[in-house]
Amino acid sequence: MSESLGPLLQLNAITKKFGATTALDAASFEGHAGEVHALMGANGAGKSTLMNVLGGVVPMDAGEIIISGSPVQIRSPHESKALGIAFVHQELNMLPTMTVAENVFIDALPQYGGLVDRDRMRKGAAELLERLGSRFSPEQPVEELSTGDRQMVEIARALARDPRIIIFDEPTSSLTDRERQRLFAIIRQLKQSGVAVIYITHFLDEIFHISDRVTVMRNGQTVGSSAIAAITPTEVVRLMLGEVERQERLREPHAAAGKPLLSVRGLTRRGVLHDIGFELYPGEIVGLWGLLGSGRTELVHALIGLDPIDSGELRIAADSEDRPITPKALHRQIGLVTEDRRGEGLLMPLSVVGNLSLASLSQLLSPLRLIDRRREQAFAEEIVARLKIKLNDPRQAVKTLSGGNQQKVVLGRWLATGPRLFILDEPTRGLDVAAKAEVLRLTTELATEGASILLISSELEDMMRVCDRYLVISRGRIVGELPGGADKNRLMEAVSGGHSTAAAA
Amino acid sequence: MKLSSLSLRAVLLDWGFVLVLCAIFVFFSLATAHFLEFGNMIAMLHTMASVVIISCGMAMVVMTGNLDISLGSIAFLSSSIGVLLMTRLGWNPVAAFSVTLLCGVAFGMLNGFIVVVLGINPLITTLGTMITLRGVGLELTQASVIPLPEGVRVLGNLAIGPIFVDILVMAAVLIAVHVLHRRTSFGRQINAIGNGAEVAARIGLPVGRLVFLDFVLAGFLASIGGIVALLQVGSLSAYLGAGLEFTAVAVVVVGGVSLFGGRGSIIPGVLLGALTFQLIVNGLTQMSANPYVYKLITGLVIFLAMYVDALKVGRIHAPPAAEAVEDEPA
């Protein structure tokens, strides 16, 4: 270990604002040569932004960067590379029709007499590939390689410049187990050769497997840094999520009774979801609780047919029996509120009236089968009143509303169709405290009226105010169930407890 | 390791255009009397020389995923200026044609500037320059036919033995551009941009500068092609280069250069593409076929080539990892 030499890299008090949003708030980071340093944090915590500052992709507003004891300026990816920093991005930058060797050297092609020195290029690539334990030929076109192999090419490109610092951003998201082990072996090799490795991830088990130190970020700040040996997974989760304040419950936990509205059995999608099974009862709010990458969104997509499934059965209560239902058919019967309300929930330039009536147009037609504007207006006004949506005129474009009110419009659209089942994926994302409370209150009202609600949120405080019970999901499996009254410690342990064992070989 | 590149479908897609070319060649050889004669072959190569040269420039632009439909107009205007310098100001041909080449570079720079600096879509840009430059040329020449001075006209039929000089010029351009594309940093990076301009930019390639130079190259080659065409006809007409850019696109696509960018070759691609079209024209003429049949067949060939292009590009997605073992859960 070269700890005695002092840090190779220091990021001190880096601040970056994008408009009104503070992405980095005096964040700091220290990296040592020959050390694997994990950078963890929830979505939006700032870890990618901090590394983008180091990589020259994003300029910082304030702070300093010190490499090997000297302060430096990094204004472009070019300058970053010149300082010996290599960045392996999450999205691979591949040139599919060109060969592996060309991909590795494309930004620094070896020359001889004005022409590209193909021999040197091929040899150089072969050497790097051998170091990485890859068996494919440098002359192969990249489009023939699997994702894992392409990542090896990306790493080879990073290593071709002999970097002192190498950043991996979420490198394992699309790898098979075997490819992941290979990546870890390479990281250990890099560590041994004295490179400072920075490893951004949201997979808890990986950092305990591969890294020496961990730094946790939250809300743009560095909230903790520790040697891996001196910290537990639960503590890491606690740092990531922050102090969960106990807030008043909006509704006491409701015990499910009667027959389930929806039963799911054996839902599997190879590599993503494993044998998922659960039930949703009328009138209850079930929280799907898991960290980023646990498979929450994938589960929702599988349930409503946006992604294919390899096996599994869904059954829905109809009249007095239950019958099987396909995910696509289920999609038509539920109210869905997604994380991405701009992208998937609302038609921004369209009016509030237009957005609200969208799912119910067939009920608002005149005898001539054209949309009856007056009925549509009345319909919209009723929902606006019921949900207390703040606006000047229902005919204004929905993009002019605040985030919270936009979310209410999405909910309001579905309310009118009277679904028995709601799936709410991050419904309070980006909302201020008052708006959050209103959306949560609405959720409890829906449940009281008899709907089943599956609630997904990374904001534990919100879930703890409304959930009747929790399904804990991790790595694509349901690993446990907790009652609605569970306290934050139990919840945090449940989601980190599954990660203490090393990944299977 | 799966050798997908040997699958029948892949082979057909990559080399189909050669098979088509051979089929056309055989057909016309059998169907006509004089098609297969040496004199006819030479005449064909002679005729297609200017198309090939301009298509090389077009191919380099298409390699980045862009398009330049002003090349025929660049050929026309730059040649017009050269001719006018010779006929009205009495310049000698070397000086006049040097100016022509400079004009080609300048007009290429114009395209490059509008696309890269002003950020305007290349198709719209070159549509604009196509119309504008031809308009300027027509104005300058009053759309009249201007015969070349006696001494210059002779150059059009210059030959070394049975081989016309412009065939040698065509060969030289083909080889030079091929080497540029395959063996220089510029060519490789141009190809990289065709794979994905954003990816290339993220990797750190100077995309703007490269695309600009690419348009300059195309303009330069267009002016050379214009001179060759001019010398073959012996006089400047308002039709010089008219529609040539579209022929060039057709040649390039049929020759296997993908309009999506990043795929294809100069040799044999552009050469075989040009040969295909020239064979069709020549063969149909020998058969005394209805001249409108040519357009129909050309259209069909282009359509087929584009369809094949789309099929090929669909192969870009990564195959799944070859492991047969079921993944162990973490």
- Structural class call of chain A reads alpha/beta
**Helix-residue proportion of chain B:** over 70%
Radius of gyration of chain B: 21 Å
* CATH uppermost class of the largest domain in chain A: Alpha Beta
Average of the residue pLDDT scores of chain A: 85
Report on the structure:
- The complex is a heterodimer of chains A (505) and B (330).
- By secondary structure, chain A is α/β, with parallel strands linked by helices.
- Helix content of chain A is 33%, strand content 25%.
- Chain A is built from 17 helices and 22 strands.
- In chain A, the strands form five sheets. Chain A has a six-stranded mixed β-sheet, with helices on both faces.
- In chain A, a hairpin with a 2-residue loop joins strand 11 (213-218) and strand 12 (221-227).
- Chain A is elongated, with a radius of gyration of 26 Å.
- The two termini of chain A are 26 Å apart.
- Chain B is built from 13 helices and four strands.
- Chain B has a two-stranded antiparallel ribbon with strand order 1-4. In chain B, strands 2-3 form a two-stranded antiparallel ribbon.
- In chain B, helix 1 packs parallel to helix 12, helix 1 (8-31) packs antiparallel against helix 13 and helix 8 (185-195) crosses helix 10.
- Mean pLDDT of chain B is 85; it is low at 1-5 and 316-330.
- The A-B interface holds A 77-78, 81, 89, 93-98, 102, 106-107, 109, 111, 114-116, 118, 135-136, 143-150, 157, 176-179, 205, 270-271, 274, 475-477, 501, 503-505 and B 1, 4-5, 179, 183-185, 188-189, 191-192, 194-196, 199-200, 202-205, 262-263, 315-323, 325, 327-330.
